[in-house]
Amino acid sequence: MALTLGIDVACRAAHQATLAADGKTVWRGRKFWTRPADLERLWNDLDLEDPGELTVVVEPTRNAWIVVAEWFRRRGTKVVMVPTTQSSDLRKYYSKHTKNDRIDSELLARLPLLHPEGLREYSGQGPADPLRRLTKQRSTMVKRRTAVFARLDALTELLGPAWYEAMNARYGIAALEFLARYADPHVVIRLGQARLSRFLIGRSRGAWREDRAAALILAAKETLALWDTGDGDGMDFAELAADIAHEAEQALFLTGQIKEIDERLANLYADADPDGIVASAPGVGPTISAVIAGRIGDPHRFTSLAAVRAYSGLVPRVSQSGVSKVESSITKAGDPLLREMLFAAADHARKVDPQIAAKYQRLMAGDRHHSSAICHLATIMLTRIAACMRNGEHYVLRDVDGTVITEAEGRIIVQQRYQLEPRRRDNVRHKRMRERRKEAAGQESQESPSAPTSGPADTQPTSQHVA
């Protein structure tokens, strides 16, 4: 007899559980909280002789499901997860016009019989895994800092273009420290070149010296000349400097946080992949290797390499009927951070790996868009990395004939044989963009009805008026 416990997990309310035996409901709507006493009471109500005969089905709900799933897994039961999109579709089939926690728990309890292929066994700690969680946190920090940099760009534009040139259009530590204190051109001029030089030397570890201080003072003078109206109705530089200082301090804080996260990631990745199998792939640096190892987790939890590709969301959508088969854009149904890192790794690997470069050249020869070709290469990279992880072997760089080569030799081979002209890539991109615009508008051969004609206007009346 197959026992299934469907649990509809709530974040701020009581969970509801339904027990089914061979698809038939035994009891339903049992409410409990994520507390030791409630879980023990529910466990005693199950009255199991062998915990292995029970399958617990949960739907991932934020992070609240992790504690429940881990509690049951430690008791020896099998815990499976259900994708939220699939459970939503099945819920509509089960009860189209009503949705409540009791129905959800009943659906989850019957799901192993209704759709066994949609279940994925819970292994590891999921979002509770520190490497997986930290990689996501780093990505969030980087995006926040990028937004701060965009706001700094907008505010610095009010000071004039000379400030970008003086800071090399970069927001390093020295530039952010400078903007956090001396974004007012009046203050920069009063500070003087000698004191400003000492400040920049200390903050940049000697990279910025007297010439940089002179450029910043010249930029401050240019800003005052741009805003000199003669009637005193100019820019309030003190208020502008305060706004810039707030953004620069946020960027400094986020930069420090990202640096600390990178140190923690290095240690966690060393524990998760002590042999450095993921890092052995071309185009995979410290950050990308930590993301791939953290987001994939245990590679053996996937039934096949095709399942790993589907998890990334890099596989195309397929619509097949009879003899017709259409493959459109990628599904994007998997982990977005994993896709982002694989895209960056594939774009770099095509410059090092001759096999990847040859594939890229063939794709671009068929008028493939650059981003589409890189997505295809990212799928190949993921398949190879996952295969290496499952087999416990390092990524081996090879020529197209199978000869083992070094990374330096791979760069030379790619430059000599598979270098693609930038103009060729731009022409393909512009051609694809024009075709997509025509397809979207549906006006490949249509003319505007208001366009002027080349012939003379017809002065004859279109109808005859009878009095």
The run of helices and strands is EEEHEHEHHEHHHHHHHHHEEHHHHH
Rg from Cα: 31 Å
Number of strands: 8
| Spatial gap, N to C terminus | 94 Å
Strand proportion, as a percent range, falls in: 5-15%
Supply the helix-strand structural class: alpha/beta
Q: Low-confidence parts, pLDDT < 50 over ≥5 residues?
A: 451-456, 462-467
The total count of helices amounts to 18
Strand count, sense and barrel status of the largest sheet are: 6 strands, mixed
| Count of distinct structural domains | 3
Mean pLDDT: 85
Task: Please tell me what the overall shape is.
Answer: globular
How helical, in percent, are the residues? 55-70%
The main sheet orders its strands as 3-2-1-4-5-6
Could you explain the architecture of this structure?
The protein has 467 residues and is an alpha/beta fold. The chain folds into 3 domains: 3-128, Nucleotidyltransferase, domain 5; 133-264; 279-422, no CATH class. 55% of the residues lie in helices and 10% in strands. It is built from 18 helices and 8 strands. The chain has helices at 36-46, 64-74, 84-94, 101-114, 130-156, 162-166, 173-182, 185-191, 193-204, 210-226, 237-272, 286-296, 305-312, 336-349, 354-365, 370-391, 407-417, 422-441, and strands at 3-8, 15-21, 24-32, 54-58, 78-81, 120-121, 316-321, 324-330. The strands form 2 sheets. The chain has a 6-stranded mixed β-sheet. Strands 7-8 form a two-stranded antiparallel ribbon. β2 and β3 (24-32) form a beta hairpin. α9 (193-204) crosses α10 (210-226). The longest helix is centred in the middle third of the chain and has 36 residues, at 237-272. Pfam families: DEDD_Tnp_IS110, Transposase_20. Residues 5-155 form the Transposase IS110-like N-terminal domain.
